[in-house]
TrEMBL record:
<feature type="transmembrane region" description="Helical">
    <location>
        <begin position="75"/>
        <end position="95"/>
    </location>
</feature>
<feature type="transmembrane region" description="Helical">
    <location>
        <begin position="12"/>
        <end position="31"/>
    </location>
</feature>
<protein>
    <submittedName>
        <fullName>Uncharacterized protein</fullName>
    </submittedName>
</protein>
<keyword id="KW-0472">Membrane</keyword>
<feature type="transmembrane region" description="Helical">
    <location>
        <begin position="51"/>
        <end position="68"/>
    </location>
</feature>
<keyword id="KW-1133">Transmembrane helix</keyword>
<dbReference type="Pfam" id="PF20134">
    <property type="entry name" value="DUF6524"/>
</dbReference>
<keyword id="KW-0812">Transmembrane</keyword>
<dbReference type="InterPro" id="IPR045387">
    <property type="entry name" value="DUF6524"/>
</dbReference>
<feature type="transmembrane region" description="Helical">
    <location>
        <begin position="107"/>
        <end position="126"/>
    </location>
</feature>
Amino acid sequence: MARGRTKFTWTNYLLRLVAALVLVFATYNPSQWSFFHWVRPIVHDLSQGNVLMALAGIVLLIGWAIFLRATMRSLGWIGTTLAVAFFGILIWMVLTYLPIPRDDLAAVTWLVLAGLSGVLSAGISWSHIRRRMTGQLDVDETDS
């Protein structure tokens, strides 16, 4: 039944977390090296755009579609809400116990974006984690 399948490890989760971090921070980050900051000047005059901007936008859109769909299918609305609450409380703890100024908008933005990446990586990994914890398969999986 489970022939040919590899076990889900911390490395697998960390790879998904890195992919989520790249997706989120490539889309927007406070350092102004992001897709948002790249296309923002041309929003009112699209004739200044180029094919690389369009390609980058489509690649990011595909990435967001994959991550959001996997997160919603794995966690559902309640699970996603709980994941957002969990990572939100982690951000709150960081701001409470570490010397990060709460009025530093850039620092708080970095934390919120990292939390969003955590939600996405948990969502895209949850089916594997649940299967490992319970031994159950997802209903949309097939035996080969």
